[in-house]
Amino acid sequence: MISYLIPFIISFVLSFILTKLVRNFVVKRKLAMSEPRERDIHSKPTPRLGGVAVFISFLLVVIGYLFVSPQKIDFDVPNVGSIDKNILGLLLGSFIVVIGGVVDDLKNLSAIKKLSLQILAAIVVVALGIKIHWFSNPFGGLAIELGDWSYFFIPLWIVLMINAVNWIDSIDGLASGISVIGAAVLFILSYNLIAVDPNQAVTALMAAIFAGSVLGFLPFNFNPAKIFLGDSGSMFLGFMLAVLAVISGAKVATAALVLGVPIIDAILVILRRLFNKKAIWQADKYHLPHRFLKAGFNQRQTVVLLYIVSIFFGAAALSANAYGKLLSVIILLIVVLLTVIILRIKEHAKLRRS
């Protein structure tokens, strides 16, 4: 376990230091300052680009391993030069989404351009060998073979996760905290599978480094936030969680359960916007966290409650077999939907009193 704790601590410390440096640089140069808009919750200009610090801290630790101990981040697949093909796919894909996010934080890219960059990053991942060959059957029996459908499913999964995390990044500390929980669960999942699949040691290591880099940023992002992830950060977080889920033994269903909060929020957002005949990418204040705020909860209460829900999702993902996971998903979906209904009732009651 110490071999995972050390890189976790290093990435945490690097992220903590770099976040402070990035924040000071952005504030001093007046770059990528998030001015309060009608749909926003913050009340004063706040720097973005926090994701740059998270990404660089993660990247530095991975590069350190490439030089000092490359065998520890090798999936036993063909190399490109001296770098494992899958690791290269993860790094190049993450670089694309971070650069695209930085440009968006600075210049506000159109939704189509952002989506194009997300798809490009996903294609790079697939092109460099990160695939899903089969799904376990939640009802038992033979596994569900994907075959060539993997080339369609992986980009779809990655783009969905990028946007799910991006959309949930609407109040201080939520996306970063849920991502830490997700990375921790994926670490435990991979660590427990090492005896069966030695390659899971690499996945566990990447999850530990990623968790440390996000956790080092969280103290600056928790309410009241001193810096935001920005699209550079939220897209990187979603991308990493999506790819880690694939390389952790194709545990996509498990990852979907771990990240139940952003996924459910994304589904509700898409359905509501389609029902109201609005563009899916049109921003508004009707995400799940906003429902809590409108019902009378403050930001910290909302974030802590959604952390707890995410931990329950994660515990279900780790403890249940395939059938149990499906049952857990159904139960938790019912709980979340009932919560949304109760929040709507409280919201309307609050409006009537005012």
Give the strand order, joined by hyphens, for the main sheet. Answer: 1-2
User: What is the CA-CA span between the terminal residues?
Assistant: 55 Å
Quaternary structure state of the chains depicted: single chain
**Count of helical regions:** 13
- Contiguous low-pLDDT stretches (5 residues minimum) are none
Averaged pLDDT, please?
84
Please report the total strand number as a whole number.
6
The topology string of helices and strands comes to: HEEHEEHHEEHHHHHHHHH
Give the % helix: over 70%
Number of domains: 1
Radius of gyration, in Å, reads 20 Å
Biggest sheet overview: 2 strands, antiparallel
Features of the shown structure:
single chain, 354 residues, mainly alpha, two-stranded antiparallel ribbon, 13 helices, 6 strands, globular
Task: Give an overview of the whole structure.
With 354 residues, the protein is mainly alpha-helical. The protein has one domain (2-251). It is 70% helix and 3% strand. It contains 13 helices and 6 strands. The protein has helices at residues 2-29, 50-68, 85-107, 111-127, 150-168, 174-192, 200-221, 230-247, 252-258, 260-275, 288-294, 299-319, 322-353, and strands at residues 33-34, 46-47, 79-80, 83-84, 134-135, 144-145. The chain has a two-stranded antiparallel sheet with strand order 1-2. Strand 5 and strand 6 (144-145) form a beta hairpin. Helix 2 (50-68) packs antiparallel against helix 7, helix 5 packs across helix 8 and helix 5 crosses helix 10. It is globular. The N and C termini lie far apart (55 Å). The model has no long low-confidence stretch (mean pLDDT 84).
